[in-house]
Design the sequence.
């Protein structure tokens, strides 16, 4: 994997940083920030896409605003050949209630993130998987998300994370009713977050004003939380690890201190609170296992009485990440 590493210079990293901050940033804005011309920025972005560094422009959508709760299922397989695993992955990629699919190295082989209306709905998804893939699944670890903070990736640059807000998924489920235009707009942007408004309007057959108005409303309501880029971490010289923690806090102050600490660690890119066998999950991007080990030691030394146990996984490949997989279901409801 590391043989395909792409050498990035300072300007490439700056462009990636501003796209990570907001994938819809205009070329003129990025050009001003990086002190490059619009033409050079455009060329560099196209080159980063062609080289496979940028895999996708991703829209952050807070599904709880639409009445959905997030879950995580870690799956351990048995007696499975590569062809069957690929088939299962393809089927999970097409599932209208699965946001994320990734293959792992560790105690589990596959991680998926389904969304559901409630625990009963989530239980039905779990049973669906157990019945359909019964002969191949040895175990499934289900976890219930409370909230997710997507931290901006500053570990490739010299930027200061303290001044950067984090897109968020969580809070009490609400029931915002999307209209047909909003469903179509979110469907398009969930696949291509950088798509220009004029092209969106043309695709769904409406005016630019309608698209603009709906986007402003979706932002105001907190349904759209922002946008970012999905990078091929191996090509940028990083590995993607997940750290699962069973951690106990004896006061709100202790948990606040923990959150402040993990947010200050530039290599921690996502902070997830959950219920289940583990109650915290941290996404970590590091250059190698030794850097991951050093970060883990810092955590254990900082919170020796709080961390009760932990496990880790290395994410080998993300097959799907789309915060609006339920678009087909919502379209049917609107009809």
Sequence:
């Amino acid at each position: 994997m590391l043989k395909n590493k792409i050498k990035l210079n300072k300007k490439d990293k700056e462009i990636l940083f501003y796209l990570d901050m907001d994938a819809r940033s205009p070329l003129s804005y990025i050009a001003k920030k990086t002190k490059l011309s619009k033409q050079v920025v455009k060329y560099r972005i196209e080159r980063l896409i062609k080289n496979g560094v940028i895999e996708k422009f991703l829209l952050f959508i807070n599904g709880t605003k639409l009445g959905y709760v997030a879950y995580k299922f870690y799956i351990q397989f048995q007696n499975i050949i590569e062809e069957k695993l690929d088939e299962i992955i393809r089927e999970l990629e097409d599932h209208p209630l699965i946001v994320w699919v990734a293959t792992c190295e560790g105690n589990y082989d596959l991680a998926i993130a389904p969304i559901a209306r409630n625990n009963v709905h989530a239980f039905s998804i779990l049973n669906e998987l157990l019945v359909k893939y019964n002969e191949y699944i040895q175990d499934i670890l289900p976890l219930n998300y409370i909230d997710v903070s997507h931290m901006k990736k500053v570990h490739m640059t010299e930027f200061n994370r303290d001044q950067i807000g984090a897109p968020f998924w969580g809070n009490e489920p609400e029931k915002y009713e999307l209209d047909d235009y909003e469903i179509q707009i979110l469907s398009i942007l969930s696949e291509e977050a950088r798509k220009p408004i004029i092209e969106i309007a043309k695709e769904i057959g409406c005016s630019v004003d309608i698209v603009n108005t709906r986007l402003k409303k979706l932002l105001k309501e907190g349904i759209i939380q922002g946008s970012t880029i999905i990078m091929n971490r191996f090509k940028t010289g990083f590995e993607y690890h997940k750290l699962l923690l069973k951690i106990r806090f004896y006061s709100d102050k202790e948990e606040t201190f923990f959150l402040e600490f993990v947010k200050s660690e530039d290599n921690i890119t996502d902070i997830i609170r959950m219920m289940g066998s583990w109650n915290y999950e941290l996404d970590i991007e590091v250059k190698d296992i030794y850097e991951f080990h050093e970060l883990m030691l810092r955590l254990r030394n900082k919170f020796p009485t709080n961390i009760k146990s932990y496990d880790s996984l290395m994410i080998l490949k993300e097959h799907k990440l789309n915060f609006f997989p339920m678009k087909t279901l919502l379209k049917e409801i609107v009809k």
Observations:
- The longest strand covers residues 307-321.
- Residues 119-132 form the longest helix (14 residues).
- The mean pLDDT is 93.
- The CA atoms of residues 201 and 211 lie 6 Å apart.
